[in-house]
Each structure stands twice: as structure tokens, then as C-alpha cells.
TrEMBL record:
Protein name: UDP-glucose 6-dehydrogenase
Keywords, alphabetical: NAD, Oxidoreductase
Sequence positions that bind substrate: 152-155, 204, 249-253, 257, 320
Lineage: Bacteria, Pseudomonadati, Verrucomicrobiota, Verrucomicrobiia, Limisphaerales
Family: Belongs to the UDP-glucose/GDP-mannose dehydrogenase family.
All copies of domain UDP-glucose/GDP-mannose dehydrogenase C-terminal, residue ranges: 313-414
Residues annotated as the enzyme's active site: 260 (nucleophile)
Record pathway: Nucleotide-sugar biosynthesis; UDP-alpha-D-glucuronate biosynthesis; UDP-alpha-D-glucuronate from UDP-alpha-D-glucose: step 1/1
Annotated residues for binding of NAD(+): 30, 35, 86, 121, 155, 263, 327
């Protein structure tokens, strides 16, 4: 099937590569000329495990190409996916100007029937607006369908999630585009659910908000664990073994971040408000998340007292492991808080240092994680990278002024750390 994806970011690029991998003919469009030139030259704008090989392989096979021209992509394809940003406005609502602009541009160059599929995360009722806009701006007066097909991939695991999705959601206004959408997804052998447009849009915001709720829930439980000497990881394990609860998204830590949860939560609260419902449950999820960071910073200041002129080593800058993405990263937020208190920072991340330098220029960037501890008054673990578990703890202890570690992601075993001579503080244990 001939597909066009408008917006070649995390979602557009990874989705485009996976569609090509299963045999579709894919044109990825982006208005960022530098990004398109980089991709055309064989470069990669993001780090995502397995993506580079997939892109190169499918470009070489002639199934995947990059362009800055929406007209070219639309002309060539039957199905046009929209994967542009839907960033937050200052009041928490969604900036839909990217979606509206692209809808107008698609309409302007349609000369035959198209299925226009929204993959960006949007407020309920956006699809209806997209359909209205296309109808209004389509000079050729051709027929079209609008579909909502939300994306559930996780950064760092995007290829895996796209190739083996839990489910595919297809929201439609009529049955007409359903066979085409089924044909696109047939090679992925995943359950497909067909809903109305509004339900599909709600599924995305409701899912992300529920996952964020799960994290805030376990973070709240971590407070009770600290107050009683219980261990939040054992509590999470015991809860999660009930299949109705599930083990995932019960990792206590310094809170959730990233380009999705914080903005989607604010958006959903705003959408609910506009629909006449005060979603207090989700406001509490936000509050717990913010307080989790406050509590962790307090843990550091309570132990180190004055941070001015102290040197702190921070391991992790990405908003989670396996990615170089630092958008709304709790690790970056933590670094800013420590800098504000006057601390000097020595920082390291396996993949995110180039992107972090742009938003956190004040820190000293260290190439080898085992060199970070040199001369530090404390070490902080801010991102859950597995590789940090291999840190040379003996060497770190020797080169620090004091062997103190604040583990915001519970990577180490508290008893083992004490045995090794560390003052070790983690979350909920
Ligand atoms: N990042 C994720 O893990 C993820 C997962 C699921 C859903 N989403 C949603 O998908 C959407 C895209 O997110 P992302 O992380 O891929 O964003 P991104 O910023 O990485 O990529 C968006 C791309 O769209 C391009 N763009 C903007 N306006 C354009 C236009 N008029 N024409 C052509 N290209 C244009 C930008 O240059 C950019 O390359 C958002 O709604 C997001 O909430 C993101
Ligand atoms: O038990 C957990 C799980 C995650 N996190 C944090 O939560 C944030 C988000 O993690 P994750 O959900 O794995 O990453 P994203 O790539 O942002 O993916 C989420 O947001 C995407 C964009 O909407 C959705 O497609 C995905 O389904 C949804 O998981 C990160 O800061 C994690 O450190 C925790 O603190 N504890």
C-alpha cells in the first residue's frame, strides 16, 4: 500500500520505517529541511534501538524515502498519516495549529480519494475538525475519509512496540476506510479494534493518563514505605502479581517525564474541564508527581545540608533509559534544581549528552560513567539506564570526598550498598 507520513519525528520516522519493513511503500515528509537532508544523506536525527538499520535497509530497498514536499507525498499515496507535534499551550490545552495547518495543506493538494489518518495525540473531537477543514480547503472537491489511529509506542522501544503492538485502534466516521486500514495493519498480526472517531481519540488520552496514574500511585505508596521501613519494590511486586493490576508501571522514582505524559495529562484535564467535568483524580496525579521531585531534592539537601560549592555527579539525563530524548526530562529538572542551590554538576548519559548540552550548558559533561565520581560530594542516579548497574562502585567510592549516593531509580540493593560502605538513599526503601 502507498503511504505518506507527514511529520518525520519520533513517531513519523519509526512508524514509517516499520510500515516499509512489512512491505508498504512509504514517503516520509517533514518541513524541517535540515532533518530531511540528514535522512536523505543516511544520517539519523534520533537514537532509537534498531531504527538506523531498519531505515537504511528500507531506503536501499526503495520502500522508504524522505521529502519536504507534502504535495509529493500526498500525490503518491492513498493513505496520508499526520504525525506532527501537538505541544501544550501555557494553560495546559493543546496547540492544534500544526494539525490544522497540515490538514489545510493536504486538502490543497488532494486530487483523488484519500484516507487521512491522524496519528498525533489529539483532544477528542479533533478528527471532526480535521474533516471539516479538509472539506473546506479541498479545491478539487474530491472524496476522503478521516481516521483516528492513535500511537502507543514507547520511546526506546519504538521498533519493538510498532512491530508487535498490543492493539491497533482505528476510529472512523463510516465503515468505508476500514478495509484499507485493516490491510495496512494486517502484517503486524495484532488485535484491531474499530471504534467511532471520538472513542479512538479518548482511548489515547485515557491510556496515557492511566499509566501516569499508576506511577503516581506507586510513588505515593513509596512515601508510606519510607515512613514504615517497608520496601516499595516488594510492595509493587506483591501487587503486580495480581494479573488484574499487572507489574508494569509500578517503578517508584523521581516521577514521570518525557514529551508525552506531562503534556497529555494536562491536555486531558483541560479537555475534561471544557466538557464540564473537573478531573480532580488526574490533578492529584500531577501533584504527586511534582511532590516526588521535591521530596527527592529535599532528601539530598537534608543529607548534604548546603549545596553551594559542592560537587554532585549525576548519572542519567534522558527522561528514561534507551533514548537520547531530554524533553521534559525529570533528570534535567533535577539538575536545574541542584544548580539553583549552587551545586557544581559532573554529568553523564550514555546517549543523551549531545541533546542535554543544549538545555543544560552549565554542567560538566563526562564521557565515561566511571569518571563522574571524581571529586564528588555525592552521586545521583536520575535515569533508569541498565548500564548504570555496572558502575565501578569501588573506584567511585575511592575518588569521592564522601561515598554518598542518592538513587532516584532504585537501581542498587540498599543492603549491598551499605555493606560496600556507601551512605545510600533511594526511593521508598
Ligand atoms: N514521542 C512519542 O513517543 C509519541 C508516542 C505516541 C504519540 N506521540 C504523539 O505523536 C505526535 C508527534 O510526536 P513526536 O514525538 O513524533 O514529535 P516530534 O517533534 O519528534 O516530530 C514531529 C515532526 O513534525 C514535523 N512538522 C511539524 N510541522 C510540520 C508540517 N507542517 N509539515 C511537515 N512536518 C512538520 C517537525 O519538523 C518534526 O520533525 C504528538 O502528537 C505526540 O503526542 C508521540
Ligand atoms: O514504572 C514506571 C514507568 C515509567 N516511569 C517514567 O515515566 C516516564 C514515561 O515512560 P514511558 O511511558 O516508558 O515512556 P514514553 O516513551 O513517554 O511512552 C509513553 O507515552 C507515549 C506517548 O504518548 C505512549 O505512546 C506510550 O504508550 C507511553 O508509555 C519516564 O520518565 C519514566 O522514567 C516511571 O517513573 N515508573
Amino acid at each position: 500500500m502507498k503511504l505518506c507520513i507527514i511529520g518525520t519525528g519520533y513517531v513519523g520516522l519509526t512508524t514509517g520505517a516499520c510500515f516499509a519493513e512489512v512491505g508498504h511503500d512509504v514517503t516520509c515528509v517533514d518541513n524541517d529541511e535540515a532533518k530531511v537532508a540528514l535522512l536523505q544523506a543516511g544520517g539519523m536525527p534520533i537514537y532509537e534501538p534498531g531504527l538506523e538499520e531498519l531505515v537504511h535497509k528500507n531506503v536501499a530497498a526503495g520502500r522508504l524515502r524522505f521529502t519536504t514536499s507534502i504535495a509529493e507525498g500526498v500525490e503518491r499515496s492513498l493513505v496520508v498519516f499526520i504525525a506532527v507535534p501537538t505541544p501544550p499551550l501555557p494553560d495546559g490545552s493543546v496547540d492544534l495549529s500544526y494539525i490544522e495547518k497540515v490538514a489545510r495543506e493536504i486538502a490543497g493538494c488532494m486530487t483523488s480519494y484519500k484516507v487521512v489518518v491522524d496519528k498525533s495525540t489529539v483532544p477528542v473531537r479533533t478528527g471532526e475538525k480535521v474533516a471539516e477543514t479538509i472539506r473546506r480547503y479541498c479545491r478539487a472537491r474530491v472524496d476522503f475519509d478521516v481516521v483516528s489511529n492513535p500511537e502507543f509506542l514507547r520511546e526506546g522501544y519504538a521498533v519493538e512496540d510498532l512491530m508487535h503492538p498490543d492493539r491497533i485502534v482505528i476510529g472512523v466516521q463510516s465503515p468505508r476506510p476500514v478495509p484499507v486500514m485493516r490491510e495496512i495493519y494486517e502484517p503486524f498480526r495484532a488485535p484491531i479494534i474499530v471504534t467511532d472517531l471520538n472513542s479512538a481519540e479518548l482511548i489515547k488520552h485515557a491510556s496515557n493518563s492511566f499509566l501516569a496514574l499508576k506511577i503516581s500511585y506507586i510513588n505515593a505508596i513509596s512515601i508510606l514505605c519510607e515512613a514504615t521501613g517497608a520496601n516499595v519494590q516488594e510492595v509493587a511486586l506483591g501487587m503486580g502479581m495480581d494479573h488484574r493490576i499487572g507489574r508494569e508501571f509500578l517503578q517508584a522514582g523521581i516521577g514521570f517525564g518525557g514529551s508525552c505524559f506531562p503534556k497529555d495529562l494536562s491536555a486531558f484535564i483541560k479537555i475534561a474541564e471544557q466538557l464540564g467535568y473537573d478531573f480532580r483524580l488526574l490533578k492529584e496525579v500531577q501533584r504527586i508527581n511534582a511532590e516526588q521531585m521535591d521530596r527527592f531534592v529535599k532528601k539530598i539537601t537534608d543529607t548534604l545540608w548546603v549545596l553551594k560549592d559542592k560537587t554532585i555527579g549525576v548519572l542519567g539525563l534522558a527522561f528514561k533509559q534507551n533514548t537520547d530524548d531530554v524533553r521534559m526530562s525529570p533528570a534535567i529538572e533535577l539538575c536545574r534544581r541542584l544548580l539553583k542551590e549552587g551545586a557544581r554538576l559532573r554529568v553523564h548519559d550514555p546517549k543523551a549528552m549531545p541533546k542535554a548540552r543544549a538545555v543544560l550548558p552549565e554542567a560538566t559533561y563526562i564521557e565515561d560513567m566511571n569518571d563522574v565520581a571524581e571529586g564528588c560530594d555525592a552521586l545521583v542516579i536520575a535515569t533508569e539506564w541498565e548500564i548504570f548497574k555496572k558502575l565501578d562502585l569501588e573506584r567511585a567510592r575511592r575518588v569521592m570526598t564522601h561515598p554518598i549516593m542518592f538513587d532516584g531509580r532504585n537501581l542498587f540493593d540498599p543492603r549491598e550498598m551499605e555493606r560496600l560502605g556507601w551512605i545510600y538513599k533511594s526511593v521508598g526503601r
